[in-house]
Amino acid sequence: MAANSGDAGGAVSRRLFIAGSIGTAATLAACSATTGQGSTTSGASSISQATDYEPTKAWFIPTAKRPPENVLGAYASQGSVLSGEAIDLHVSTVEPNYRTEVFRIGDYDGKGGGRVGVQGPFPGKHHLPAKEDSRSKATAAYWPVSGQIDTAGWEPGFYLVHVIAGKNKIDFPVMVRSENATGKVAYVSTATTWQAYNQWGGRSLYKGPDGNFDTRSFEVSLDRPFGLMGRNKYMGYDIPMVRVADGSDADIAWFTNIDVALDPSLLEGAAAVFTSGHDEYWPVPYRDAMTKARDAGSNIAIMGANTCYWRVRLKDSETGDGRRVVCYKSSELDPVKDAKDTTARWRDNPHADPENKLIGQMYDAFPTSGPMVIRDPGFWMFEGTGVRKGDKFDGLIGPETDRIYPLESTPQPIQVAALSDTMCRGAKTWSTMTYYTTDSGAGVLSTGTMAWVRALPRPGGLPGITDESMRFATHATQNALHVFSKGPAAHDYPARNDFDNVKLPAHNTSGAA
User: Fold this and answer.
1) What pTM does this model have?
2) Residue 121 burial (CB < 10 Å; 0-12/13-18/19+)?
3) Domain 54-176 has what CATH class?
4) Strand 310-317 to strand 320-326: parallel, antiparallel, or no bridges (unpaired)?
5) How many CB atoms lie within 10 A of CB 4?
6) N or C: which end of the chain has fewer CB within 10 A?
7) Distance of CA 343 to the CA centre of its chain
């Protein structure tokens, strides 16, 4: 979420506000609430690996079955590794030992995961709760390494590690990253955003132990387990997209956004770059790498909303590079002044660089909900779906949305494929799906809504999202992966510049209530 409150459904108050200036250009109306590399395995118990992992639904742990944080907690020293590098485990448990079970996320006959295998047992020990940095208020565990997972033979992809102690088990994600993205579709997971919301230890970038924004931390650490809010981000916004991407006909390269921030060359030569439903917190090198990729002809697909909203910077920790995410959410509070990476919104000074310059749209509304309304049924992404102009797909708009703005920073030619009226706390607004093309040949797609990814395959489902909406979103996402995997999309699918012809609904710009 972009502003100063918790996630959708939280108890913190939210308000309608004017979404500040873009440099000196304009005032926008908005409705919103305010890695290091692993070491080579040594001493880890090895298991036989295969790329045809057993399809299973066992990768999913229902929230109701998660144990209390003081009973079992776990994290890794590495958010991503190359195949063959060790994953160092940090575990606190009341049990005398624990083991791990690992799953690779993908289609796997529609079950969502493949069972990789079990490692352990490892000796268990109960550790002290979080420690807090007095200056930044960041909370971290600082537990010692208690075991290692061997990744020999693992193919690149998105993995979930289950830590099992007695009758309790929890999970955390690890990316087995690709060597490079040359000629492939790069899928970039949203690791900085997971941690921004992660409340483990009492503080996140949104609130402190008392639930207030003013008691938030100014940094968050990857050296801690995932609380419920952080876990919800990778479970709800990355894993559904990973399942569709892995089951598509595209050749996927796998990274986290921290990987790209630490080594921007990873995206060089990519046919396309896809990011998921909630990629909100962007380090400067990550954005620079995305822009450079677009300008070199790589297609860009933004499959969510509230993207590239907060500018952050990474710091190293004792366990590796880029293990701290810094975001004061205020240029006045940030001790780093007038720098390219002073932490504020990307659209704000210093060095304002609004998000629409890259993604085509800007963050607009939270909370909102409703159907997606098709404006252009001939749009290439909709091929084979049978949609007609005016068709509505329930549940595909919300809980946060983007829209196109009539600004000089909006790229052109830009096409509006869906235009959906919606309401946000009594104010009328809309969400747009946009597509623009560039002189490099790159196509840039933005769905304009977080609910797009929420409608992709997931355990159970979500209220308000119909089976019809899920089929439509999945088919259209597969189309996007197929078309963008072929290289610069503008050659076959140039954007039609219909921006001036879009009849946008009236919008409440008062900023009241």
Assistant:
1) 0.90
2) middle
3) mainly beta
4) antiparallel
5) 21
6) C
7) 19
